[in-house]
Amino acid sequence: MTLFDSESQYREKATIWRVFSLLPLYGNLAGGRIWRWFAVNIPMDLGTGEQFTSDIDILARLYDFPRSEEWIYRTWEVKVSLLYKDGTARSLKFGKIRRTVNQLRAYRDFGSPDVSLLDIYLCESGFMSHNVFPPASIRDTIIAKIAELSKDGFGYQLLPFEHGKEGEVDVGLLAMGPNEMNPLQTTFNILSAPELGPRDPFARLVLRIDEFFERSGDPSHNVMKQIVFCRSCRTLQLVKMKDEHRCPSCGDDLILQS
User: Residue 225: which residues within 8 A CB-CB, separation 6 or more?
Assistant: First the structure.
């Protein structure tokens, strides 16, 4: 089964996994900065002593060399929508904007210094050869989200991409970036979030992740791997998401975990 046709209850996690399997997609989330690590699907209560029940979809530790000596931490809440090759859309969650804003506020209340919404658009094979981005079907939704997100100073990025299809298998990658002069740019950066210092309990969480990453062998060899959390054995794992989807400790399927 292709990613576009995947089951809706697994689509978001499977899509995040696919993004981090492809450097042209996730590398742009660093915004031109050097990254130490990316982490995905991390529980807020992991080692923090807090009662937060949500997960952080994507978390990054970045370095703004040579302009700063401070590490920068960014977090993203991810939403996934489908764009059909005729330009129509599905799963836009147009009526749930306020709920999304509340999720972003939970990140900020947790102490995250830089909070953004990442709207990922899975495009059906053939979409990009017949449409511009964004198509008319999603423009009102984007405008409404810009208005709501800007009120609270949240960031907003769009990431559309498409795979070709051979039978029931995804092949290749087409990414539609905002800058024709830089075809490697695949993310539309609509709004930027203010960059502040991390606060507890978020600061305690990233300290634990930092310590885990530094213990996991030579960090210079691990920058192409991502930190994930296994819900079965309740441990952090460092995996290359392009090649691995099972927990190195217990063998459980990390994508299918809910």
Answer: 238, 239, 240, 241
